[in-house]
Structure formats: C-alpha cells, structure tokens
Design a protein that fits this description.
Length: about 500
C-alpha cells in the first residue's frame, strides 16, 4: 500500500494496555498501520496497566495478540522486530496520580530524541468507571493542555444513561476542548458503514428516491449467534438497548436518514447526524408498549451444541430482567421521512450473525401484468450488508426467461470481495489513523451521544421499572421473541434475512 497521507510523530498511551481490547483490536490495528506505511517514522506506543511487565515481556504478550488476531496473519520476524522497538510498557494504577508524571517524562524524552513536539493520544481502553479519574489525573499532571496535539480516545460505553453521559461530557469539557475528544463507536470505522455515505452522496441515482415518496420502510438488523459468554458481569448492567441500540444501530440510522452535508467536513457531517436524532419521535409510556419489544434467550441448541440460557450464564442473576434482544420502531419526524417506519432489531443467540440495512421501496402505483405473472412479486429493495458479507444489492423485478411472462426478483450486486482485491482495513485501523490525523468525522460528538441517550431513556426506564414476566421468551437459534414478529407484522411487513451464501 502507498499511503496518501502524511502522519506526524505520535505517542500512543494505551490505558488498559494489558486488556482484551488492546490484545485483540488495538495492537493488531497499530501493527497493520505500521505494515501498510501509515505510521510516521517517529512513533511510540506506551502500554500501561497494573500487571508487572518489562518492555520486553510486554512486547512478547502483544506479539501473541497480533499473531492470533491480526488480519494480516502471523507477524514476520523482521517487521515485528522493527515495530516492537517502538513499544514500551509502564506499570501504573490509574488511580495513582504520581505515575502520570512518568508518562510526562517519557513523552518529553521522545520529543527531545525526535527534536519535535509529537501528537499524544491517550487511549482509554479500560472500564468506564475509570474514564473520569484518568482524565482528571492527566489534567493534574499537566498533560492535556496542548489542544492542537493532545487527544483522548474514549471507548464505549459513553455513559450508562443520559445523566451519566452528561456528567462525563461536563467533566471532559473542563479538561479538554471538544476537538481533542474522540468518542469511539467502532461501527463507524467499518468500510461498509463508511460506504453508506459514499453510496448516498457520490451517486446521483439514489438521492432523488431517498425519501418518504419512494421509501416504504427501513430495517436495521444487527444479530449475533454468540451469547453473552464470559461478559455476564458487564452485560447484566447493560443489555441490548444500551449495548447496541443507543450507539451502533442509531448511528447506522443516522447515516441512512441524514440530510446531504455540504462538505465532508467533520462538523458538517456530525451536524447532519445529530439533526436526525433530534428529529426522531420521542417515546411516551404507551409508545414503549406498542413500539418496543424486549427479549431474553433461553437455553437451546446452536449448530449441534447445547448452549445455556441467559439466566444460566456465569455472573448472571438467575432472575435477571436484562434484555438480550430488542426490536424498536422509530420515526424521524421531518419532511424527508415523516411516517416512514425505521425498524431496528438486535439480539444475541439468534439464528444468524449479520448486520444488514434494508431499504424497501414503495410498490409500483399500478400492476400491469396478469396476476399469475407476479406470484412472486416483490417491491424493490436495497440491501446494504455490513458484515459478515460486505455487499450492496439492489433487488429489482425481472422477467424469468421463458415463453410465459413470469416475474421474479433478481439482484444487482456490488460485493467487496468480487470487486476489490485488497483487504479492507479493520475499523480500528481507520479510527486510529483518523485520531492521528485529527479527523473527527467518524467519532461521536458530545451532543450526539446525549441525543441518542435522550431517545432511548423512556424505553430504558420503562423496561427497568417493570420486570418482564415473560423472560426468557426466545430460544437460542431463533429470530427472537414472537412479539418482535408481531411488531412489524402489524404494519404489514416482515423482518428480512439475508442468506449468507449471498443468494436470495
Ligand atoms: P479488560 O480485558 O477487562 O481490560 C481491562 C484493562 O484495564 C486491563 O488492561 C487492566 O490492566 C486495566 N485496569 C483495570 N484496573 C486498573 C487500574 N486500577 N489501573 C490501571 N489499569 C487497570 O477490558 P476490555 O475488554 O479490554 O475493555 C476495555 C474497555 O473497552 C471497556 O470500556 C470496554 O467496554 C471497551 N470495549 C471493549 C471491547 C472488546 O472487544 N474487548 C469492545 C468494545 C469496547 P491490569 O489488570 O494490568 O491492571
């Protein structure tokens, strides 16, 4: 790869440097950025945590992570030796304000060696409880003042509800300028997700149809086969609404529903997205009952293997009220989308792992063909498949070859694998590079996060305050509770699924 963009000298300080996220995602992403030539000649990665590593033993641990999880496979010795010379470790408890001075000394030394002032990126890959203390301790150690060069990356979840998100935003605002704060939603870094904007705004074909006059409804479905696994502790305090809808699914909805930005400038794009959240219809108590469905999986079988129900998972309350599935009907009340339903669905232990956006267009105003010709009649659909298949397919009606006039739906397909030979970068590669470049387009602004919380709070409150008597209400390997089918069937639609062999 020939990088088209120059990056400045950078020091990454990774809080949670011994954790799962760093091992599986961040370290492999940084290594691949290095392999592809995106990192500057002068860069340093300082991992930190309480575990006692030396630089050397820390490098060995990172290598294991990279060998297991890097998209480019096992590290080549020569390349790894080169990369690992830039990796360091510092033992530090985030609560110990004294140790932050050591970060300062290390950064000063890099600056002196490199004869420059490097960008410094503090990446908070730790429990959200630690976000405030780390930000405050960085400020106390005077490590945050350079608004041009110092950035802080905050992992999800950003807040536990609207109040805690506001509190965290308020604290960060006392220390950092908004242009220094990078709130990550890794979904936004996915190639297929970024492509939604390219697809919408670089083609003249779709925009004239992209409104209530032509679109009947939209579905956004992010389903997982995995259960909660060993994350019961975390998930008990979260649930599908907080873990997926408030961030990933609402961000996808914003990309589908946003107005055309006048440029690809970060502020402009983020303004257009937050307008969508503000235009979304707020839920009253009856709306929660009528337009939102929650579910929790029971034990069952997945691919020939018996799997426990959610309440039987480790660190889960045997009478847990936490939802592992949510389906919600939203509306965006503006000229473009008035009365077009947006159905969002997400859940664990479902039949298929897939993230798919389906846009169903309205039917033709009049069918000119005899009824027998159109038994398999289907309205036009645009299906944006984010993962695991990466494709966009436009389903149109066509005449089946033969002497009779039989119609059926066929796909016009753009699929990444068939079109491009180069491997798509991982979302974290894109996002880390953007952080280095100071580009916030794919990160969430404070008001965006708060608007998303505001929208889900009535649902969250209703579900928390009223224990579900029907849990568990769907079995592993199903498509979720029956009520979720009813939610959409009441409007005359059904949930779409995309067979993963790519065929209809
Ligand atoms: P994890 O595996 O539990 O790692 C936690 C990290 O925090 C460890 O490096 C641990 O290091 C460090 N830590 C804990 N207490 C500390 C203390 N007092 N002082 C210094 N370091 C301390 O968690 P994770 O899965 O990596 O997740 C980290 C964050 O990323 C969370 O906010 C999570 O929600 C978010 N996230 C994770 C993923 C993922 O795929 N894992 C995906 C999206 C978002 P020591 O034990 O060495 O101190």
């Amino acid at each position: 790869m020939n990088p088209t963009i120059h990056t400045d000298p950078t020091v990454f300080v990774i809080f949670g440097g011994t954790g799962d996220l760093n091992m599986r995602k961040l370290a492999p992403a940084l290594y691949n950025l290095f392999l592809d030539g995106w990192l500057p000649a002068n860069f340093a990665i300082i991992g930190t945590g309480r575990t006692k590593y030396t630089d050397e033993s820390y490098r060995e641990t990172l290598l294991e992570g990279i060998n297991s999880f890097s998209r480019s496979g096992k590290a080549e010795k020569k390349k790894w030796d080169e990369f690992s010379q830039h990796v360091f470790y510092q033992v530090s408890d985030v609560k110990d304000a004294e140790t932050y001075k050591e970060f300062g000394s290390k950064i000063d030394k890099f600056n002196a060696d490199w004869k420059t002032k490097a960008n410094v990126i503090y990446y908070l890959a730790v429990s959200p409880n630690f976000f405030p203390i780390i930000a405050s301790n960085l400020a106390k150690a005077k490590l945050t003042a350079d608004t041009k060069r110092v950035r802080i990356v905050i992992e999800k979840p950003f807040g536990h509800d609207l109040d805690s998100a506001k509190e965290l935003n308020a604290l960060l605002a006392t220390i950092f300028d908004e242009c220094q704060i990078y709130r990550i939603d890794h979904y936004l870094g996915k190639e297929t997700v970024q492509n939604i904007m390219a697809f919408r705004f670089a083609n003249s074909l779709f925009e004239p149809l992209w409104n209530r006059n032509y679109i009947e409804h939209v579905q956004i479905s992010v389903t997982e086969q995995l259960g909660v696994e060993d994350r019961g502790d975390y998930y008990e305090g979260s649930g599908a609404l907080r873990d997926m809808i408030q961030n990933h699914l609402l961000q996808l909805l914003c990309l589908v529903a946003m107005e055309t930005p006048i440029s690809f400038d970060a502020a402009e794009v983020r303004d257009r997205k937050v307008e969508v959240l503000r235009a979304m219809r707020k839920f009253g108590p009856d709306d929660v009952r009528n337009s939102a469905v929650r579910g929790q999986y029971s034990k069952g079988w997945m691919q020939g293997k018996e799997v426990p129900g959610y309440r039987e998972e480790a660190n889960v309350n045997p009478e847990s009220n936490t939802e592992t599935f949510a389906a919600i009907k939203f509306f965006v009340d503006n000229w473009r989308w008035k009365d077009v339903p947006f159905y969002l669905r997400t859940g664990k232990r479902l039949h298929q792992s897939a993230s798919v956006i389906t846009i169903q267009f309205k039917d033709v105003p009049h069918r000119v063909f005899p009824s027998e010709s159109s038994e398999s009649w289907q309205q036009n659909r645009l299906i944006i498949s984010i993962q695991p298949e990466m494709s966009i397919r436009l389903q149109v009606q066509a005449k089946r070859p033969g002497l009779d006039m039989i119609l059926n739906a066929v796909d016009m397909v753009f699929d990444y694998k068939g079109t491009y030979t180069n491997q798509a970068p991982e979302a974290y590669e894109t996002l880390l590079l953007d952080t280095m470049l100071g580009d916030q387009t794919l990160f969430m602004r404070g008001d965006q996060v708060e608007s998303a919380w505001e929208l889900v709070m009535p649902i969250l409150n209703a579900w928390q305050n009223k224990k579900s008597l029907s849990f568990p209400n769907y079995s592993a390997d199903s498509w979720g509770p029956e009520n979720a089918e009813a939610l959409i069937a009441r409007d005359g639609f059904h949930w779409f699924t995309l067979p993963l062999n790519g065929k209809k």
